[in-house]
Amino acid sequence: MKYIYLIILITSLSLSFSSCTERIDVELSETYTRLIVEGNLSSDTTAHLFKLSKSADYFANEPAPIVSGAQIRLTDNLGNQILLQEKAGGLYQTPSDYYGESNKTYELQINLAQDISGETQYIAETALPTVTPIDSIGLQFNKNFGKDGFWIIQLYAQDPADEVNFYMFNVYKNGALLSDTLDKVSFTDDRMFNGNYTNGIGIMYLRNNKTNEFNIGDTLLLQMSGITESFFTYTEEINRATSFQNPMFGGPPANVKGNLDNGAFGFFSAYSNTYSRMIITEDNVEYVE
Question: How far apart are CA 88 and CA 157, in angstroms?
């Protein structure tokens, strides 16, 4: 049995303050254990990683239990398939020369050595969209945004006409990933520029601080990914569920649903990547006063 002890302070309106406390016992029901899947496939030639773990109770003061000994298979729509190898406990990877191909669909099949709440097999399927190439990128610093200013990464690319596209953006500075959590990654559809040239539109806004500050000689790398609408919607719902809620103790109405079957949490995504790099000089940064 778990309880939250909520202390309510009742303050009078007179100059002399008094308070009392009341204990409220909130019983949190336990749900059944579920498989958690973290992993994706991209068009980059690399070892693609997948992590398997189990869900844990809300107040469990320990890491989520790993799931070892599973068999993970990737199969494309032409019937080509590979088996992932377990690199470490709960961490599985493709061969280092493996890559996803655009305009194909991929199926992820997971077979567990031991069942989780009666389930041993999980399947998810996704398409791997194409992505338009980047012509170039720009960098602007606007000191009027926020307390210390913002760095704005600008995109120059031609968006395909007569189709709806969804994009994901990640940014690196001198080889280090700056968008290292989901809330720092930028997602957008093309409703503002569908079929048009983006012409320097701002696609990432970085608060100026010690980590994000750019200096002369730094290397800026932008990764643009073409993603599916379902993955775009999933990330929107994750960000909404983990953002500030009012009332504070309201919480999300339900767990965010991914694309795995049999009650597993997570999302199997696939996307095409394109990159653009710039070395920062005195001449290629626009400063807005």
Answer: 40
Domains of the chain in sequence order: 35-129+233-270 (2.60.40), 134-226+272-288 (2.60.40)
Residue 17 has pLDDT above 60, yes or no: no
**Can you list the pairs that 250-254 forms with residues at least 24 positions away whose Cβ atoms lie under 8 Å?**
none
* Angstrom distances, CA of residue 287 to CA of 171, 187, 206, 265: 20, 25, 14, 44
Are the CB atoms for 107 and 74 separated by under 8 Å? Answer: yes
Residue 120 has a pLDDT of 97
- 250 Ramachandran zone, left/alpha/beta (phi>0; psi -120 to 50): alpha
Residue 288, classed as helix, strand or coil, is strand
**What are 135's two structure tokens?**
């012509």
User: Going by DSSP bridges, is the β-strand pair 134-142/186-189 parallel, antiparallel, or unpaired?
Assistant: unpaired
- DSSP β-bridge partners for residue 35: 54
Question: Beta partners for 202?
Answer: 154
pLDDT band at 59 (very low <50, low <70, confident <90, very high): low
Tokens of 92: 């599985």
172-206 per-position pLDDT tens digit: 999 999 999 999 999 999 999 999 999 999 999 99
Helices and strands (DSSP H and E) totals, the chain: 1, 18
Q: What is the pLDDT of residues 197-230, one digit of tens each?
A: 999 999 999 999 989 999 999 999 999 999 999 9
